[in-house]
Amino acid sequence: MSTTPVKVAVTGAAGQIGYSLLFRIASGALLGPDTPVELRLLEITPALKALEGVVMELDDCAFPTLAKVEIGDDATTVFDGVNLALLVGARPRGPGMERGDLLEANGGIFAPQGKALNEVAADDIRVTVTGNPANTNALIAMSNAPDIPTERFSALTRLDHNRAISQLAAKLSVPVSEIKKMTIWGNHSATQYPDLFHAEVSGKNAAEAVGDQDWLAGTFIPTVAKRGAAIIEARGASSAASAASATIDHVRTWVQGTPDGDWVSMAVRSDGSYGVQEGIISSFPVTVSNGQWEIVQGLDINDFSRAKIDASVAELVEERDAVKALGLI
Ligand SMILES: NC(=O)C1=CN([C@@H]2O[C@H](COP(=O)(O)OP(=O)(O)OC[C@H]3O[C@@H](n4cnc5c(N)ncnc54)[C@H](O)[C@@H]3O)[C@@H](O)[C@H]2O)C=CC1
Ligand SMILES: O=C([O-])CC(=O)C(=O)O
Q1: What sequence ranges are listed for the domain Lactate/malate dehydrogenase C-terminal (predicted)?
Q2: 188 has catalytic annotation
Q3: Count of structural domains within the chain
Q4: Which of 15, 217, 235, 292 has its CA 20 to 30 A from that of 148?
Q5: ipTM greater than 0.90, yes or no?
Q6: DSSP letter string over 184-224?
Q7: Would you say 13 is a known binding-site residue?
């Protein structure tokens, strides 16, 4: 085992997602069995007592990869020297709400956290935003951290990506491992576009393998895009274990890379690829190697996909304009 622990910050650590996420990070599921981790856990002051209880449970697991845990309510102290920051802490939506309804309540959290990361994080900091509305919260954090390269900020659309793989695998009665090159485009919201025209099932084009545009447009896309709301309806609370699992998948891919012949979905700063307005944080197909993501280039976008991508990007532009008006970026 290497000796220097990787410092991993998690915000909202006493919340639902935190309760699933922390134990997976501490057990080595994020960085592997040979990399010790130091957890830096940020919460609001009233939640610190609950967080102490979670830390007692972490201690009781006796994870060999968990080197140290520090908790606190001050971002500048907790983020000091961190290599990875998982920004989860934010209010979840309830029944009947869209994630964009959280913009005002949650947006205010990410400007100070971006500033704190800018001031004290390690030089190799990588930031993943899970708290909703995730894309625009990542934009806020990035805009408030001018000294951190913009490619070190990302937002989570891996949960949508995993949901899309699962729905397609069930439709075609194949194992999820047969599905490659899934893409989520745009916003982590009901306008997101899960794209089957470039996905592959056992090496064959997924849209052709499905051969049913009505299912693709009328069942697959809305099922994936509205899965979060369906879980809130069923569970009475928003998805937590699957969100934690996707957060692990996202960061592990960012650190370890994508396998040959596959890609993942990550929401990252647009460079204008595929006509997505430059500067917003939008989900793209990306490959990762040596800790650097690259947007997959050269995919043909048909008229159906063009309209779906444009609609989700228009929503992201609206969200950006709203947080600009609030003075958050
Ligand atoms: N991007 C995605 O795919 C998904 C995102 N989410 C989002 O993740 C967020 C967290 O969800 P849950 O854990 O279920 O919510 P939760 O309410 O159980 O936990 C959130 C925690 O964040 C803490 N918190 C609030 N403000 C904070 C601040 N300024 N600094 C540090 N901590 C703070 C709260 O005290 C609470 O403990 C929500 O915004 C939810 O909508 C949830 C599922 C999937
Ligand atoms: O739907 C929600 O509010 C929680 C979330 O982001 C998801 O499950 O995708």
Answers
A1: 157-324
A2: yes
A3: 2
A4: 15
A5: yes
A6: EEB-SSTT-EEE-SS-EETTEEHHHHH--HHHIIIIIHHHH
A7: yes
